[in-house]
Amino acid sequence: MVHDQLRALVRRYPIVRFATRRIRVRLPRRLGGLDPSRVPPRHRHFSLRLPRVAGDRRGIGPDRVELRLPGDLTVPRRLAARGLGHHEPDSIACFLATLDHTPPGAVLDVGSGVGVYAMLAAARSHRPVFAFEPAPELASAARSVSSSARLGFTVVDLALTNHTGTALLHRALHNDMCNRLVRNVRPGLHHVTVRATTLARWNETAGTRPSVVKVDTAGSESDVVAGGLEVLRRHRPWVLVKVRPDRGVEERLMALMEPLDYRWFPISGDPPYEARTEISGRASPAWERMWLLTPEDPPAEFWRSLEEWRAALRVCRVAANAPEDT
């Protein structure tokens, strides 16, 4: 218990985390020392290649962005090592295809992390883009991404859920992609109090017209949808939502979406994807878990566009992204 609390304290404050590692690399292993070669740098500086479909003459956005992000965050580490083409490639290709085939309107990246989806939406469209991220260190990283190449998407320090006020965000110890809102727990070093509101309330204030909504909140996706039902009824955006199995998300999501007459497609295999009558977290690969929810049947052009973006992302896999660690 004490050991877990100490780990939570170190992880909560980046400067404490960095200083602790600097000390531990000088200690012998039997006293808790660390192998210096396995300690992440304080910052990770790397060039990231962005996908562009063949024959695209629109000239929207850059082909590369230069990023400098905290070295111990999960997504920057993966992007620096393997490129964008290995980071949820099918989900990203589907997301980019929706930008090509949905009406004009805003893009909402709910649970954005460092803002990969928001970055791509800003780089490959002229739409207003909003990234929602309640974890302070991830929101700060997302702002850094937004300023790169003057992408200019807006980072919103809010947790979108089914109520307005505050919420407890549980910080995952080993993977910051798994931070999630929790209920009925005692506040502690593992948790941080964040501002919370509903998608409907936020949209009423912001006055946007959402056209594409991506939701990945590590288990509270159905709460986000419940708080945004008015937005879904009114604006009929296309929705990409991550569905992890065995967390009760599937049943709640189906109950919420059934009256809205949306089509449900697991992002799995080769397109065109097959519409399903049930939403299941096990219907898509473990590294994706994303579903596409559409208010009408996607046209044939959408599936062709999706294939083009998949090919564009395969090129990004082989791009050399040599990190410059500082």
Features:
single chain, 326 residues, alpha/beta, Rossmann fold, 2 domains, seven-stranded mixed sheet, four-stranded mixed sheet, 11 helices, 35% helix, globular, disordered C terminus
Structural summary, described in words:
- This protein has 326 residues and is α/β, with parallel strands linked by helices.
- It folds into 2 domains: 1-39, no CATH class; 40-325, Vaccinia Virus protein VP39 (Rossmann fold, 3-Layer(aba) Sandwich), CATH 3.40.50.150.
- 35% of the residues lie in helices and 20% in strands.
- The protein has 11 helices and 14 strands.
- It has helices at 2-12, 14-24, 74-82, 89-101, 116-124, 136-147, 199-206, 221-226, 229-235, 249-257, 300-318, and strands at 43-49, 64-70, 106-110, 129-132, 154-156, 159-160, 165-170, 180-182, 191-197, 210-215, 238-242, 263-266, 290-294, 324-325.
- The strands form 3 sheets. The chain has a 7-stranded mixed beta sheet with strand order 5-4-3-10-11-13-12, covered by helices on one side. A 4-stranded mixed beta sheet has the order 6-9-7-8. A 3-stranded antiparallel beta sheet has the order 2-1-14.
- Strand 4 (129-132), helix 6 and strand 5 (154-156) form a beta-alpha-beta unit.
- Mean pLDDT is 87; it is low at 319-324.
- Topology, number of strands: 14
Low-confidence stretches: 319-324
Shape: globular
**The number of domains:** 2
**Span from first to last CA?**
33 Å
- Along the chain, the helix and strand elements come as HHEEHHEHEHEEEEEHEHHEHEEHE
What's the pLDDT, averaged over the residues?
A: 87
Portion of residues within helices = 25-40%
